[in-house]
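Example 3.2
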Amino acid sequence: MSSHMIHKLGIVLLFVVSCVLAARDQPSILTYKDGVFCSPVERNKNIDKAYVELHATKEVIDKRIPGLIFHYPDIVNFSSVPILEVYTQLYANNKDHLYKQMLTDDGKFKLDAAEGYSVDDSKYWSGVIDKDIKFAVPTSGIYCVYVAPDQEKPFDFSLPIKFQNHFGNLNYTEYLIYSQLKYVIALAIVLFAALFNYILRFKVGKDFQNMDSISVISKAIVFLILTPFIAVYIFDWFVLLLRNNFEASYQTSFVLSVLRFFSRLGDSLYNAFTSYAVLLFSMGYGVIYYHNGNSQHYRLFPQESMKKITALFFLYLVVVVLYCLSLQSTSSNHLVGVQHNTPNGTFSSVVAALVSLFGLSFYILSVIFYFKTKKTIAAFPPASDAESTDKIVSAFRKSFFVILVLPIITGFLAGVIAGIFLVNAAGNVPDFPQHTDRDLVYQSALTVAAFENSFKGVVLPIVWSNWLYFFALIISIFFIWIKDNNGLIVDHNANDPIEYADVPNFDISDGEDEEDIRV
């Protein structure tokens, strides 16, 4: 393909992908204002399990509304069926112009073959929706439903569409995640068992009275990070299981909506908490500070800083809750290729921006405080073990790399892998003539075809990169602090246990720089 063609393909790709993904949370229902819906439908060898079904309501039957169901990349075969981008714009604003282009005199869709192409009747359905219509999809792919209600006599109607995949009711994006969650949960449980067993091997005792022999960070990694991760993901998997079996694409169950809300909320709150935990760590919590002022190994965390950061964290949580509530109440008129500027949608966008701003702020603060804490550690008075300070600095530096740099690397690698799949998919689509009056049709069909072929290869590398980074973080941080950083581990059975009796006496007031450090 020429560079000009690639450029246009990229533009259409961004449009279509954003349109398809925007519809994943919305019921698949058509109305007089929204006359198109597209969704991926996955089929296996059992042809009865994958289909598109139109549930004809009384008003739809009475008005005899024409409809069309087809595999979107096959749009190149038709001479008069408009592409998705054109259809969504004209249906909402200029039905007269749209209908003159695509309908016959008797109000049916024009399905004549384009020059050089043929139309296969088995690959689409078209006709008047005067009963429930069930169209078994011949191949996996993105299928679109177009309708053309009478524009001379506008009327309200509701046409539910069921996009049924061979695996169930979830959309393909959610199913890909759902299908992998069982492996992630199993891996997390095994990791928890292994790390917990490692902790027990430090002879903390059955009554756990000697848990102070384990570094604060290592305990936090297992009990405050890994444990809630398992709980959140088990709940996510359970909600997806219920939705896959009991909630069709056009349905909205109150119970499942509530469960879905708490699933989203749990994910968001957990992400916020991990950002908070990383910031506290960067400020020295578990490294040189602790919340208990009586600890012989740590000095008391600066209380003023703790209050400010905790207040910022709770404000972050409030914004997260508002965002999840806004998603729950967003209008269902947000369909493929159509976006209405509703108050809920505007509010959701504003709150989403605030959530992103908080996430970015916690990241930047973590980087800033990392360097401040590193200077503070370097200024500590010599301990009984001359190498202990160096070990703490080394462990802190390694942890910083794992927490703040490694995700950038894994994200980049995931992007490269996804890009390779996308390029290969684009290379496997048909070649169409260039610089013709059907150039936009070819571009739109090529884009969706490439999207279909690469969807799994794009989604899975991205989600698995996040999970693999998480597990790498858990394992790395745990062993960095429980094994390498001997300065913060007190083995009471050792002949020469390391003590930091002078740590609580090392006084640094809030906001002081390293020049003002005093002993």
